[in-house]
Design goal:
This protein is mostly helical and 78 residues long. Helices cover 69% and strands 0% of the residues. The radius of gyration is 13 Å and the shape is globular.
Amino acid sequence: MKKESFKVIMILLVPKVVHLIMENDGLDEIRACIAFYSSDLYAALEQEENDMWQMEPAELYALYAKEQRMRKDPRNEQ
């Protein structure tokens, strides 16, 4: 994929995931952005070669939520 196309997909995808974080986690937009941009998921999403950008926003949110649960309690694998 061309770098320009990847950037466009990221520009369209990230706000959708942030919106889901706002809705589901009760965060305002700034806190949701900070939480998402500082997540391991976002770091992985930035890597074009791993194809995570092809996932639906809801799927990405589910991975984000799992990461957050694991940070709170590493024994929680659900």
